[in-house]
Design brief:
By secondary structure, this protein is α/β, with parallel strands linked by helices. The chain is about 15% helix and about 40% strand.
């Protein structure tokens, strides 16, 4: 069965987006020579751990109006402490899109907007969540 193998973030300000994700999740960025595109490869963790890596590119076209969704594909990232991650997100230019909620038997989930308006899910695993 096909599985996700790459994700892509679009940003009006790539440096701002990189700083946000570096501070929030510890991701690293490497400029990729993609011809006339501004493109950075994103490493989200060691190869031996489950997960996918992605890319960041300068947004092409206009950003949707306030209140309109920026993208229809949402990645959710596992974090060890959801409350701490939400605090880090808001301290670095993100905002809360959907507050922390329990997913019974799975954990706690919240959604944020990054400074570029992209939606991101943050999940703390906790099988005792009710």
């Amino acid at each position: 069965m096909p599985r996700p193998m790459h994700f892509e973030l679009h940003a009006d300000d790539p440096a701002r987006a990189q700083a946000f994700y570096q501070r929030l999740l510890g991701w690293t960025f490497h400029k990729w020579d993609a011809g006339s595109w501004d493109y950075w490869l994103i490493t989200t963790g060691p190869k031996e751990e489950p997960g996918i890596n992605g890319g960041l590119m300068r947004r092409m076209g206009a950003r949707p109006a306030s209140g309109q969704p920026v993208n229809a594909y949402v990645c959710t990232v596992g974090v060890p402490n959801l409350d701490a991650a939400l605090a880090t997100a808001t301290a670095n230019g993100g905002d809360l899109a959907l507050p922390k909620a329990a997913i019974p038997g799975i954990g706690y989930l919240a959604y944020i907007h990054d400074p570029e308006g992209n939606l991101l899910g943050l999940m703390q695993e906790d099988t005792s969540a009710k």
